[in-house]
Write a structure and sequence with these properties.
single chain, Rossmann fold, 25% helix
Length: 205
Amino acid sequence: MRLLSQKPASMVRTLFHCSSHCSFHPRKLVIALDISPIRLALARHNATIYGVANRIEFILADYISFANAYLSRPNPTRRIDVVFLSPPWGGPGYIPRSGSYDSAENNTNLQDALDTHPQYTLSEIKPIHGADLFRLTKRISNNIAYFLPKNTNLNEISTLLEKDESATTDNEPQMIEVEEEWMGPKLKALTCYFGGLVAGQEHLF
């Protein structure tokens, strides 16, 4: 597992960054799923502002139901190249009790901070275990970006590929890249990249 790159957080970066990279082929699209019509309407509004609404298909649906329906089709006509997972984290209980965890000045080493604060585990993801969500998604695509709390147990993340036979190429294990999402001096979240989304593994895409 490769640690860590640091980038400023952006609430619109995840969806619109993907759609902006679809311009090399006019038929490439982003599928945006949410169970909230209000959030979908806000996302559509933002997409219009950023000029990418024509590259995004907004669907009111539960991701797990969508994924199972997609996988049940014998010959899907639309291949999904990348999946960005941003599941419910189970409420505000994931936030560490100590505010010092957030500060870049007080915590220069993320792992040291994780060792001294309550860690978030994938079992807290709703409505299914985060590891099960990952395995379901990997049946759709190996290229996954997983948006998780800042105090996620990184050792647990590294085990997601341990039992996956497809996670090795030419006897070389695949890497996981973890990106810190900062907003000013505050660490807000982590994004874990798998497959061809990892720097140096573009050939897996």
